[in-house]
Amino acid sequence: VTFEVFVRTEGPRLRAALVAAFGAEVGADAAADALSYGWENWDRVATMENRVGYLFRVGQNVGRRARRPQRLFPPVEDAYLPRFEPGLLPALAALSEQQRIIVVLVHGYGWSMTDVADLLEVSHSTVRTHIGRALSHLQNALEVDANAD
Amino acid sequence: MRTDNDITEGLAEYFGWLEDRQGDISVTGLTPAEGRAVPNHHLRRHRSRSLVLVLSGALVAGTVGAIALVGGLGSDRPQNETPAVASGPELTEPDQDLSEAPPVESTQVATTSVPASTQVTEPAVPVTTVSDDLTVAQVRTAQLAALRSLQGFAATVSRTVVAPDGTSSVQESRFSLLADGSFYNETGPGLFQSYDASTGTVLAAFDNGSGGISYQRIIGQQDNSLPLLMLAGYDPTIVVQEDSMSDQVAEVVEYDGATAWQVTSTFEFKKTPDFVSEGGPPPDDFTQITTQTIDPTTGLVVAYTVTSTRESQQTIDSHLVDVEAIDTMPAGFPGTVPEGSPVDESGSPTGFQAATANDVASSYGIPTPIPASAGTATITISESLTYDDGADSRIAEPAGTYRQTTFTTMEGFVKTAVMLFTQSLDEGHEPPDGMASADGYLCFDLDGNNQCELPELPPGDDTNPNLFRITEGALAGQLAEFGGQSLSTQLPPFRISIQVDNLDDAKAIANSFNLVSPA
């Protein structure tokens, strides 16, 4: 796989994962930095089985050192998503990094739990556990009744 | 009242909107093959630590040098200015008896120039489709069985590479490869490349372009991929696998006068989402077709071709002929460096260390789960201290060390790998959100109570045969899951992955771990 093909096929996944972890602004920058690192070291990165997972860790390192912005996720203009619950965004930002990554990738970006497990090099069960807890936190934050019909 | 569905639908709506809003990933000149063009403003400056790259480049020079030697070309001649030759190399007749292989020798037969319009050429060895009543999974299973009983082979590889500008080169060279990874190839008088698996050493003697021979050595190389891939362009022992990104067809074909299996994978790139090169038009869609032809007797991939509709993509066409089984390396292996000759060792990687099981536990400094197979495995420890603290202050040394220990055992050419992963945390640093620190290592903290925690068995999953608890050994009681060709589990702070082809073998390995204390 050439680096260019990798960027085109896997770049969006890498950015999505880092956006999930660090928000829209820092996540996108971290993805660019991680891809930059991958580009300079492609001879070695290309041989890895989990290239996205590796560059995700590179991006995590960048993101964790970045200054945390006041808002992780930009607000939505009502005209675009009129039914969107704005309280979801601060609730999402209040989750732990790991829970936010997993719940955003699965429910926000539509990844399979297997894909997320591969990215994070954790088991399927860990992903499921995180999702359950993340949704529970979001429900509490939004005072959602999970049993409502 | 809102429901769970409202939350998940809200997440899907929002991140769909955000992705549209963020648009494309802008990359410029990200084409290492064209000479490390300057990245755009997004791409930061880093101090390079890619030590392997240094030697890799030198070995490329060695291969080019070998082409020049045998072809009688001036060593300073650009590759694209090669003389036109009317005919390609003469290859072995398809019906030749494989048991009558010629003596081991290495020749560079031709460097040709062909018009761009004929870039996609007929295969050098005829392939005829016999049947398409086959699946990739069936091929994989049968190939694995054959490779398990193969201890080594020698073969002549014929490799045609057509560059985007239409020039082509044909290289033909004989090499030997053992199941332990040892590799040897002579490219001319006094010229060779080798990998000695017993010492983890790559050695190369190549034409330095000034009429002399230069020598290079990499100590601590974990595998033979560097010399093998440079020679053959592919690994003949790679096992075919199902690829969800490609359309795949498995067929029974006739190759080199015998029945073979062929897997054709077609990857279609569509520019959605669109990637825009800064200052230029977006790249076109393209289709890349890869074929792997497998010899049922040995399990080897005896033909490997890559063609692409993309102009900048190289066309690769590699074939193995005169395949013979061997169990020892040729007499010249691993090659000789004349006494007193300078040897460049600047490319030796520092990240990989060969180790024993006791070394592994000592390196972690805490009781360490180690598989029973460690006694016969090749063990490597890789530490990813790869981030730089260059001009960009946001990229700094990690606050810890990511360490991967791999226990590799071979059955013929089939590899089983057990990997341990840890992330340590340097003193004075706080663990990130969602993680805790124990004995200096990070672990998952699901509750946010600064305790390492294990995932729970989700309700209703107790009937899933791929999700189970390990019953014996140091990992007894831990939850494990098998999927694809790997089993994952953990014993905090260790995350453990077992790369093996079937569930039964994975369970047997998972049940075999011992907890070894550091000396």
Structure description:
The complex is a heterodimer of chains A (149) and B (519). With 149 residues, chain A is mainly α. Chain A contains 8 helices and no strands. Chain A starts with a helix and ends in a 7-residue tail after the last helix. Residues 145-149 of chain A have low confidence and may be disordered. By secondary structure, chain B is α+β, with helices and mostly antiparallel strands. In chain B, strands 1, 2, 3, 4, 5, 6, 7, 8, 9, 10, 11, 12, 13 and 14 form a 14-stranded mixed sheet that branches. An 8-stranded antiparallel sheet of chain B has the order 15-17-18-19-25-24-23-22. A two-stranded antiparallel ribbon of chain B has the order 16-26. Chain B is globular, with a radius of gyration of 26 Å. Chain B starts with a helix and ends with a strand. Mean pLDDT of chain B is 70; it is low at 26-124, 272-282 and 385-398. At the A-B interface, α1, α2, α3, α4 and α5 of A face α1, α2, β23 and β24 of B.
Name a few traits of the molecule.
heterodimer; A: 149 residues; mainly alpha; 8 helices; 68% helix; globular; disordered C terminus; B: 519 residues; alpha+beta; 14-stranded mixed beta sheet; 8-stranded antiparallel beta sheet; 6 helices; 35% strand
Secondary-structure map:
The complex is a heterodimer of chains A (149) and B (519).
Chain A: H1 3-22, H2 24-40, H3 42-45, H4 51-65, H5 88-93, H6 97-108, H7 113-120, H8 124-142
Chain B: H1 4-22, H2 51-71, E1 106-113, E2 127-134, H3 136-148, E3 152-162, E4 167-178, E5 183-188, E6 191-196, E7 201-207, E8 213-219, H4 225-232, E9 247-255, E10 258-269, E11 286-294, E12 301-308, E13 315-325, E14 343-344, E15 352-354, H5 357-364, E16 368-370, E17 378-384, E18 402-411, E19 414-423, E20 435-438, E21 441-444, E22 467-469, E23 479-483, E24 486-491, E25 494-499, H6 503-510, E26 514-516
Helix pairs in contact in B: 2-4
